[in-house]
Amino acid sequence: xxxxxxxxxxxxxxxxxxxxxxxxxxxxxxxxxxxxxxxxxxxxxxxxxxxxxxxxxxxxxxxxxxxxxxxxxxxxxxxxxxxxxxxxxxxxxxxxxxxxxxxxxxxxxxxxxxxxxxxxxxxxxxxxxxxxxxxxxxxxxxxxxxxxxxxxxxxxxxxxxxxxxxxxxxxxxxxxxxxxxxxxxxxxxxxxxxxxxxxxxxxxxxxxxxxxxxxxxxxxxx
Length: 222
Hints:
The chain is α/β, with parallel strands linked by helices and about 220 residues long.
């Protein structure tokens, strides 16, 4: 079997399929290409509406989620909660089927990742986060209508603050914390919708929905 095709053509801001920047991530990618030739096993491109007013920044592809399917948050428990929530708030069209070819589209929203490649144990190093940040920065800059950002987890928060021109000591991560960035963007923090956070009760569906309800309020207030 061949690897799945991406859900949309790769934009110039995306890394190449064989991006060489992070040796540890390259080694894992090569290992998984040998073991699972039918998986995506490459940097995962952004997914969503290029005219989005809302940009959602995740951590990195999950091994059996985006690294397998080629679409952010697709194929694992994190995606189940995220796409169910986006549907509830009218930010998606179609039905989420845990596959990149399920026909789902986003409306007014786009999903980016702080790190494009699968990191071992879902833990990228500071150097890997830094190496991937230029891709995130270029993608955010290419979204002129995106004025509200949601960061899923502390690593996504840190990268979001930096690409939006903020200062980390002044913008501390906390669930539902809001930060106004120098150019007028609003950043809302959320605990990551990972299976672990859901199973431990650190993040409940109501808590997650509150983040997107607030994002819609901020949009309406502009």
